[in-house]
């Protein structure tokens, strides 16, 4: 009897932490009846409403972090060097948001930027905390599309599809967020790039076991899905993390395994030239135009702020800013890109190209 009670309490805790942490949450709410928190189907949606799923706990059942507390890197004993983080430069300060915290909260509203992460699709984005041109915060709607997070803004209660990068329902339907560039890598690499970084602390205001991944074997079991996504594509293992450049409904995927020991090269996608730079832990990309298109680039990361260099003796950081040389202060134009599980990329941006080494 005692074991049964303990098991029940553990299950309840998990459901509160995560909108889709239980297989039983995979119910079809296409009729929007019962206790579903999906807006009625007569509301306008840019995505098929019968494919919008109610994840379980409901709106804000997974609580966003709205008052984040940061600590110095040397105080962060709770994170290993190989654990993943989302990195950003915000108001001149490098900051890191560990996946192990985002797994439980999905959204961090940090001043003017909202960091959002979907554990089920392995996708992280950063965007300005504005809706309808007014400052706001975002929360977890409790809804999913293609297994992916749908956020809502607290100004207008509109629903935003994370990987689609668009408001798909509500007063702001059709609007797109203003993207802020983030970097996804491991903690060791981010510390090497930005040793003075701050990191989101475990002082979140919520009681969670951040050393426990709330989805079991989900991110390594390529056959396990809690919610479905369509269309499917078996060209790569479903849960393989890939870096992808996206444009309109097209995408091109780059596998981390093909960047061992570091690479920098120009690549054509959708008629435009991009610089793709990275290693097995971090990939980033930039659109090349103007005089930048004439430069030749080379990977050059040696545990410092420099990530690549060019034939004019300029050095560049991971965000595409020239930090030394004749072009100091110039900034490359970011490619529209994200990291996600392969299955999710293929569902949102069907038939992705896959980069193959020449």
List the helices and strands and how they pair.
Layout: H1 2-17, E1 52-54, E2 70-72, E3 84-90, E4 93-98, H2 99-105, E5 107-110, E6 113-118, E7 123-128, E8 130-131, E9 134-135, E10 138-145, E11 148-153, E12 159-161, E13 166-169, E14 179-180, E15 183-186, H3 187-193, E16 198-200, E17 241-247, E18 250-255, E19 263-269, E20 272-278, E21 283-287, E22 297-299, E23 308-310, E24 315-316, E25 322-324, E26 333-334, E27 337-341, H4 342-348, E28 353-354
Parallel strand pairs: 4-16, 18-28
Antiparallel strand pairs: 1-10, 2-16, 3-4, 3-15, 5-6, 6-7, 7-14, 8-9, 10-11, 11-12, 12-13, 17-18, 17-27, 19-20, 20-21, 21-26, 22-23, 23-24, 24-25
Question: Mind explaining what this structure looks like?
Answer:
The protein is mainly beta and 358 residues long. The chain has 2 domains: 2-200, no CATH class; 241-354, Rieske Iron-sulfur Protein, CATH 2.102.10. It contains 4 helices and 28 strands. It has helices at residues 2-17, 99-105, 187-193, 342-348; strands at residues 52-54, 70-72, 84-90, 93-98, 107-110, 113-118, 123-128, 130-131, 134-135, 138-145, 148-153, 159-161, 166-169, 179-180, 183-186, 198-200, 241-247, 250-255, 263-269, 272-278, 283-287, 297-299, 308-310, 315-316, 322-324, 333-334, 337-341, 353-354. Strands 1-10-11-12-13 form a 5-stranded antiparallel sheet, with no helix packed on it. A 5-stranded mixed sheet has the order 2-16-4-3-15. The N and C termini lie far apart (62 Å).
